[in-house]
Amino acid sequence: MSTIVAVDTFDLRFPTSRLLDGSDAMNPDPDYSTAYVVVRTDDDGPDGHGFVFTIGRGNDVQVAAIDTLRSFLLGHEVEPLLADMGGTWRRLVHDSQLRWLGPEKGAMHMAVGAVVNALWDMRAKRAGLPLWRVLADLTPDEIVDLVDFRYLTDVLDRSEALQLLESARDGRQDRAQRLVAQGYPAYTTTPGWLGYDDAKLARLSGEAVAAGFGQIKLKVGADLDDDRRRLAIARETCGPDVRIAVDANQRWDVDEAVRWIKELAAYDLAWVEEPTSPDDVLGHASIAERIAPIPVATGEHTANRVMFKQLLQARGAQVVQIDACRLAGVNENVAVLLLAAKFGVPVCPHAGGVGLCEIVQHLAMFDYVAVSGTADGRMIEYVDHLHEHFSDPVRIDRGRYVAPTKPGSGAQMLQTSMREHAYPGGAAWAAG
Amino acid sequence: MSTIVAVDTFDLRFPTSRLLDGSDAMNPDPDYSTAYVVVRTDDDGPDGHGFVFTIGRGNDVQVAAIDTLRSFLLGHEVEPLLADMGGTWRRLVHDSQLRWLGPEKGAMHMAVGAVVNALWDMRAKRAGLPLWRVLADLTPDEIVDLVDFRYLTDVLDRSEALQLLESARDGRQDRAQRLVAQGYPAYTTTPGWLGYDDAKLARLSGEAVAAGFGQIKLKVGADLDDDRRRLAIARETCGPDVRIAVDANQRWDVDEAVRWIKELAAYDLAWVEEPTSPDDVLGHASIAERIAPIPVATGEHTANRVMFKQLLQARGAQVVQIDACRLAGVNENVAVLLLAAKFGVPVCPHAGGVGLCEIVQHLAMFDYVAVSGTADGRMIEYVDHLHEHFSDPVRIDRGRYVAPTKPGSGAQMLQTSMREHAYPGGAAWAAG
């Protein structure tokens, strides 16, 4: 048996605020960061890598939160932990003392996500397969074993989840082949950051269309006149057939959101993302009803499966945007994929940041092969930043994610990049 | 002008798990703890004390979260910070990078609460008044200036809040006098911890009635037969005129909660507290509708004002239980008091833990004098633990909180207690 002998954490930050990459109406100057964790064993098998994505200050708090979980892993045998990821998840999430810091939300919950994802990375590497395929090869019983149905059973219980998975079992192999051959649809947020000037917006929008993307996304919500002008530029550049979504990053109150969106409706919006507080389920439902048929998209800041359950119950989200690192890792995202499948709502993962594309693509591809069984109306966000720091960076071909083939979850960063972006001692910061 | 020269933090823990004080269906063995902060200035005026309450592991993460806020205070002039607590709150809560760790929930949000409360403690001490009186002496305009109405305006905006406060302005002085003369109603959870045996439950229930409490509370949710037996003992001991509330501490799923509560309804329940996930607004609403007329009480784990707004909108809470340290301090609690007043729902604060009674009594008393204008159906939780560690411990007289008269918020711990409970080096832990 192999034993976990180290849970090493790292505070890694990228000085992205210098170029206003990632700027939006709520986040004017993010420094993309990861609270990074490596789980090491005493055998020759691969390590497990995971992280929490943050935007700068507070990344040290996130590292401290991951550190508290060390005792759940150190000295434990690897195989039973990896073989029972449902049980492992419960032990981490339901520790009664640590749970108090959430419960199941904020820094402590995301820390669990980093550790859970690191274990999945290790499991996939040891299986010699990309994570999406490890998940898609599980039986329906094995998949529901990953899910904690606590607080979900009034809407979805184990037996109904099993039925959903059984009904998607036929065709898994065909879809996996199609995925490998054709990839998975993507859209790009690269053109739309609020800090970019009009010329850069036009140039990048044109490049996105030329590269084959069927949808782009623009940040909005700081100034209505600016939004109108920028949407006009994007629509003019893209033509009528490329979808344009907008993202307010929680900028508005409920009534304000409705008024503002109606002012922008003429530009044919693919969806409106994060119109208000991510906690406001009833607010999202009210907005969605009043701006229909424009869909509301949300989820990158949705704290846990209980909040996703309610967004679906209340019809507050017509597009579910899971995030690989906001929830408590792969297991809780599987729960959300099942909830979305039950409600027939498409999942279009949030990505960008640093490393989010690399991980979350596996979840969308698993969804396609084994859960929803379709890619219709689905696509993964793509931003062309910081991929060069990862050992298996995403590949985009004609506006689609190419299915990863290397073993693991995609989370592993290059050692040189880790050294250079260590905060505050790394070369990237010394130069700043 | 005076300047802030130190923001000192402390990891303080009490080994309460040794006696099962505080044990319930979700928290079998808490070690009551505080991530404690002292804000110091370069003048001779008093310091400000605040803290986050936790139950053990993770208290160090909470300290790390408070540490990130140091730069918002160090070197700043004290008077403008204290004079504009609304602006100070916004700067702390809306820092775009730190906000990512919530947003507005979990460790980072509670850290803001500790700092905000420490500043209120300082302001009250410098005014030479107890916090409740500082707040109750503010004009309606000054009170609404404390509140961030972002994400609330679909339900409550500044002008409506002003009207509520204006209509409670008459009678403020009478109510303040009555409060000083008669105190504020309390109920006690002292008898009801799940780890206590039947004899201890009966003895403590009897003592509570003899001490003049009109309501006690029992922990439930681990085992239905145990709950029935313990409720029978409590009801037998207390007689029919003392109210008995039960608290499930988030133990149940929605349908399970309804079934379980119906089994206990014969014991005449004053309220059912935290029946399910604190995030499940729609679940609370469903439970409340199906167990009516038994009221649902919740709030001690409600993350922010947006969640409280929805609990009230959806009629998921018939009793609002604010917590002094879960929300972002006094300011956000003022927002919740205003929301509850608008909906006519009584606020019965959560307390216990360590130091929670000391702080939260000020908020309930402010509510009585200046917001709701009534104590009908209101009471503050009381538990008889750990008060001896505070410089101005709560006083209970015939089942009522005696209105504090000393300057400050009540948060200040004795220096000897702080030394002894420093974790892990203090004497309380060396002896363990």
UniProtKB/TrEMBL annotation, chains A, B:
Recorded superkingdom: Bacteria
Catalytically driven reaction(s): L-fuconate = 2-dehydro-3-deoxy-L-fuconate + H2O
UniProt keyword annotations, A-Z: Lyase, Magnesium, Metal-binding
Organism: Haloactinopolyspora alba
UniProt-listed SUPFAM superfamilies: Enolase C-terminal domain-like, Enolase N-terminal domain-like
BP term (GO), one: amino acid catabolic process
SMART domains cross-referenced by the UniProt entry: MR_MLE
Top-level taxonomy: Bacteria, Bacillati, Actinomycetota, Actinomycetes, Jiangellales
Keyword Transmembrane helix included in the entry's annotation: no
Protein name: L-fuconate dehydratase
